[in-house]
Amino acid sequence: MRLLNIEAIDDEGRGRAFYDAWNYAVRGAFPGDQVEVRVERIFKAQKLYVCRVKRFARKGEFHESRTCRHKLPCPACPLHGVKDSLVLELKQSRIQAALTSVALDLPVEAVVPHPSLTGYRQKVKLMVAGDPGDLRLGVYVPYSHQFSEASACPHVDPSINQAIPILLSKLNESKAEGLQAVILRAVQGGVAIVVVTLQPLPDVLFTDNPFLSFSERIQSTVSNNILAGEPGRQTGLQRVPSLEGGPSVHPDSFCQTDPIQAERLYDLVADFLYQGPGHYCDAYAGVGGFSKAILKKGEANLVAVESNALCIESLNELGIQVYGGSMAEYLSERSSVRWAGIVVDPPKKGLQSEACLIAALQAERVALISCDPNAMARDLLEFVRQGYQVVRIVPMDFFGGTPAVETVVLMRYSGEPQ
């Protein structure tokens, strides 16, 4: 088999090579490597081979020792065992490339690195494979049906790693059917479990349960939507104490990947937005991380807008105005408010049509948060067109071992397109 010289790295953390008019995307390979590969998938129209490393003829300068016991390459953490300098450079370049794609020439600051690359992930989703009584937990290799078991991860909170084999044993003993995924969340005092399933779980799983909270989310059909399904039975604590502090939360509610980095994010945004008493909005508020940070700054007429019913009770405990619905619905009722500051932290797909609505509010200051550089760039373009000046673009690393990056865009309204 031919040897490939890896010359670059792509947005998915794969080494890239070019040979005989074909592109190669190689999982587990990085710039400077010379590798023999095993082809996993072929995209003829794009003249692209998707591969994984079979053998290293030469390792480049970016490799470092791995602490993960799973085989290279990991589908979930493709950049584990890679020098942080390359990882952070890739994250920053993804943001810069996204801005360039929409003709925005703006400086991007250096990525705010992780406080720790081990034990930081407070929430993990694992897929379920196998037959009842002989189940496996893990992740699927991208672009395939190949399943990779995951029994522990150095990036994950140790309490989750300890809970995985216990949970798997209980699921197998129950002979439960229709299981799709499990969500494990580290909280103060233990671990909360949510099982995503196509049918109600056996009664035995809700008795003598070792977890702080155990619940089911029932889907009517198989879905790739991580939020799909309706809450079912629950045992243990109905709401759990979050590692981020504040009001207790539903185990299946949203949380940032890293609670320590999350506090940095919340404070960064609040320090920029808050300029004294005024009207502030936490859009796509989740359980209120940004709201709590703004309230710590001083007096504020603050409203949190959130459509997920699982988050509403936690928001109500903050003693602020809470609107249970979409941002578009909220603005249709209250378009005349003069906003001192708005923070928007939408899902991965971005604001889409709501970008125009929010930009039209002419808030004095806006913080746009995004986990997808391309969605961020599209949304930001709308704000720039409507007269916002970009003050800072701050990338933050919430996802060690992966190419994923969180982007914080801080803007002021000037009335003049940039």
Write the layout of secondary structure elements.
Layout: E1 4-5, E2 8-9, E3 15-19, E4 22-27, E5 34-43, E6 48-58, H1 84-101, E7 123-131, E8 134-140, E9 147-149, H2 158-174, E10 179-187, E11 190-197, E12 213-218, E13 230-236, H3 259-273, E14 279-283, H4 289-297, E15 301-306, H5 309-316, E16 321-324, H6 327-333, E17 339-344, H7 354-359, E18 365-370, H8 373-385, E19 388-396, E20 406-413
Parallel strand pairs: 4-6, 11-12, 14-15, 14-17, 15-16, 17-18
Antiparallel strand pairs: 1-5, 2-3, 3-4, 5-6, 7-8, 7-10, 8-9, 10-11, 12-13, 18-20, 19-20
Helix pairs in contact: 1-8, 3-4
Any low-confidence stretches, pLDDT <50, length ≥5? none
Number of helices in the DSSP assignment: 8
- Average residue pLDDT: 94
Beta-strand percentage?
A: 25-35%
**Any idea what the CATH architecture of the largest domain is?**
3-Layer(aba) Sandwich
Order of helices and strands: EEEEEEHEEEHEEEEHEHEHEHEHEHEE
How would you classify the helix and strand content by structural class?
A: alpha/beta
Under CATH, the homologous superfamily of the largest domain reads Vaccinia Virus protein VP39
Helix content: 10-25%
Largest sheet: 7 strands, mixed
Shape: globular
**Count of domains:** 3
β-strand number: 20
CATH topology of the largest domain: Rossmann fold
Distance between termini? 53 Å
What value does the Rg take, in angstroms? 23 Å
Give the CATH class of the largest domain: Alpha Beta
Strand order of the largest sheet: 9-8-7-10-11-12-13
